[in-house]
Every structure is written in structure tokens, then in C-alpha cells.
Design brief:
Length: 369
């Protein structure tokens, strides 16, 4: 258990490239922190600076109040699990898991006990005497985790540990990692580009872009109150719809014009927009596919009409890709499967007003939070 603080941390590589800029975060004991973002956003670099595998150019890293910048990786009491399992091919699973204890001169019986305990937690008891080549991808990844668990580290770092696995196995291992976290009572920091892993595992998520932290929040808050258009578009599948609009003050109320249509705003959103000098501003309206409702094209409540371009039936839900009338902006709708559609069908749609987001077109910042 430990508390980790990154104070205004920067990473500049030798070629002058700034991979991480002003990373500032306090991680409490026993949190499951996720670093998420597109390829190249600096998440692995940040993790490697915490592990001690990469120097910190500027700023400070503290673990339990002690400055770590100059402390060797091996003395940081951190265990790291990588995407490539890096197992010793000639050693059995038992020896692979116990290796780090052996090189730290732990007693044979103690190693045996800890290896058995880790194998039990990870469901590896049956395969302890096999070699890595006789294991499935998921089992190999569990052995890699076993190696980290036996050391009882203060902090567990994981860099894309599931990205070598197929989709089904990834789903299973995700559940196992969640279980492991609840059993171990240790701080986890986990790097992924997969927003589903981020949302399902993290107690808090750090969303990064171009080396800069965009938002640090719980999964629920990231989803409901994205700080900007990037975060809004990155979190959620299918992604949020973005439509061009303009803030209007009409009939005594603030609302949004979307071409010919006017979208009313909830009292809360209007309150949040007050004092922000937004009237007449060009904005981007964000609506998640699950917050668009399909209705009959002639229904009075319809916010708009359109034509079905593609209909995807996914079992319990369906995704409709719509061509909106009067604009060339597409609209993605997530809906139930009570009614099915075909390309060319005419439909009406309405937005769930309490769930629309409005972003400044220039800065991308949310103006309705
Ligand atoms: P990915 O998911 O692709 O691993 P990431 O978010 O983990 O992406 P990093 O590996 O942290 O990204 O890399 C951040 C940026 O730093 C990238 O643009 C990368 O090209 C650059 N970078 C990484 N290592 C070096 C290096 N040794 N010298 C210069 N630039 C580097």
C-alpha cells in the first residue's frame, strides 16, 4: 500500500521531443489508476518514469513521501507486467514465478509457499510444472502476473498486459485482473489504449493526448461530464456524435441552433453556461448514440428526420447509422431491437436533452459542465 505523487513531471527525449508535459497527479493508497489515450500520447513513458526505467527530465516523483527520481528501479518496490510476458522459456511455471524470490535469496520453503499461493489466486496450480511453450496466451499472462504478485510490491504497474490476447480472452482476463485487485489490496497503475478496459477496471482514469493530461476522473464522471471534446469522443462506444451548432438566445431562453432546428437546454446546462459569454458562439453539440431516440418521422417531438444508411443488429441492441435530412452530418443511434430497420427507411429522431454536451468550437472545452 502506498501513496504516489507526480509533481509537474516532464519527459524530454534526447532528440528534444517532449513526450510528457506537466503531469501532475496524486494517487491514493489502493487506487486502480488507468492511463489511457491514443498511441503516442505518453502513457507508457509516464509509467516507465514511475517504474524507474526512464529518467524524469523535470518535476518530482514521490512514493510514500520519499523522492524517487534518483532511486534505482530495483529499489522502488514496484512490480511491472508488460504486454510481452517475458517468461524464461527453459524454466517451469513454478520456477518462473519464484525466480525473483530466488535471486533475493528467500528460503526454499518460503518461495514454495508464495508460489503456491500466487498459483492458487491465478488458477495456475494445475500447470505449475509446465514450460511456457505449453501454455495458452492467457495462462502466460497469468504467469507474468504471478511473478509480480509473489514480490508483494507496493505498486503494481501494468503496460497493456492484455493486448496480445484475442478479444474473448481479453474479456476473461479483465475480470481476473479486477478480482486480483480486490484480493491484493495494492495500488495498481495500468496503461491501455482500450477504453473498455479503462472504464471497467479503473477507480480513476487519466485521459492523455499529446503528452498532456486532459482529465482525471472516475469512469462515471468521465462519461457524464467530459471536460472537452477529445475526452467525450474517446470514452464511449460507439463514439459520441458531434454536430455543428450555434448558441442562440431566443424567446427569452438560451438554446442551441442546429441548422433549422432549435434544441432546448436543461435548466442546469443553461445555469452552467451563464456568465460564459456564449450567445452567438459557434459550438459543437455532442450526443451519445444511446441518447438519441428513434421515433416516427411525422412525430411532432422529432428533433429531425433522416434516412437509415446502415443497420447493425448486435443481439440485445442495434446501431443505426443515419443520414440526417438537411445536413451532411451523419448520426449514430444505439437502440433496442424491438423494431428492426433497413437501409433507406425514413425515421425521426429526438435527443435526450439532459444528456447533450456543448463544446466550444475553437478550444474544444465543454461549456455546459
Ligand atoms: P503506445 O500505445 O503506442 O505505446 P504511448 O502513449 O504509450 O503509445 P509512449 O510510448 O509513451 O506512447 O511514447 C510517447 C511519445 O514519445 C511517442 O510519440 C514516441 O514516439 C516518443 N518516444 C518514445 N520513446 C522515445 C525516444 N527514446 N526518443 C524519442 N521519442 C520517443
Amino acid at each position: 500500500m502506498s501513496n504516489i505523487v507526480l509533481k509537474h513531471v516532464y519527459k524530454r527525449y534526447e532528440n528534444g521531443f517532449e513526450a510528457v508535459k506537466d503531469f501532475d497527479l496524486e494517487i491514493e493508497d489502493n487506487e486502480f489508476i488507468i492511463f489511457v489515450g491514443p498511441s503516442g500520447c505518453g502513457k507508457s513513458t509516464t509509467l516507465r518514469m514511475i517504474a524507474g526505467l526512464e529518467d524524469i527530465t523535470e518535476g518530482e516523483l514521490l512514493i510514500d513521501g520519499v523522492r524517487m527520481n534518483e532511486v534505482e528501479a530495483s529499489d522502488r518496490d514496484i512490480a511491472m507486467v508488460f504486454q510481452n510476458y517475458a517468461l524464461y522459456p527453459h524454466m517451469s511455471v513454478r520456477k518462473n514465478i519464484g525466480y525473483s524470490l530466488k535471486i533475493h535469496y528467500e528460503k526454499k520453503e518460503e518461495i514454495e509457499r508464495k508460489v503456491n499461493e500466487a498459483a492458487e489466486i491465478l488458477g495456475l496450480t494445475e500447470v505449475l510444472d509446465r514450460k511456457p511453450s505449453q501454455l495458452s496466451g492467457g495462462q502466460k499472462q497469468r504467469v507474468a502476473m504471478g511473478r509480480a504478485i509473489v514480490r508483494k510490491p507496493k505498486v503494481f504497474l501494468m503496460d497493456e498486459p492484455l493486448s496480445n490476447l484475442d478479444a474473448k480472452l481479453r474479456g476473461q482476463m479483465r475480470v481476473e485482473i479486477a478480482r486480483l485487485y480486490h484480493q491484493l489490496n495494492t495500488t495498481f497503475i495500468y496503461v491501455t489504449h482500450d477504453q473498455t478496459e479503462a472504464m471497467t477496471l479503473g477507480t480513476r482514469i487519466v485521459v492523455m493526448k499529446d503528452g498532456v493530461v486532459q482529465q482525471v476522473d472516475t469512469p462515471e464522471r468521465l462519461f457524464r461530464y467530459p471536460a472537452n471534446q477529445f475526452v467525450a469522443g474517446f470514452i464511449g462506444t460507439p463514439p459520441m456524435n458531434f454536430l455543428s451548432g450555434n448558441v442562440a438566445f431566443e424567446d427569452g431562453a438560451l438554446g442551441i441552433r442546429l441548422g433549422e432546428k432549435k434544441v432546448a437546454l436543461t435548466v442546469e446546462k443553461v445555469r452552467n453556461m451563464q456568465n460564459k459569454d456564449v450567445v452567438g458562439k459557434d459550438v459543437v453539440v455532442g450526443v451519445r448514440p444511446e441518447h438519441v431516440h428513434i421515433c416516427a418521422p411525422e412525430a411532432g417531438e422529432a428533433c429531425g428526420t433522416g434516412t437509415v444508411d446502415v443497420y447493425e443488429m448486435l443481439g440485445s441492441e442495434a446501431i443505426i447509422y443515419l443520414n440526417q435530412d438537411g445536413t451532411n452530418e451523419k448520426l449514430i443511434v444505439k437502440t433496442g431491437t424491438e423494431q428492426s430497420f433497413r437501409p433507406g427507411d425514413r425515421v425521426g429522431y429526438a435527443f435526450s436533452l439532459e444528456n447533450i454536451h456543448v463544446f466550444d468550437k475553437v478550444t474544444g472545452e465543454t461549456i455546459t459542465n
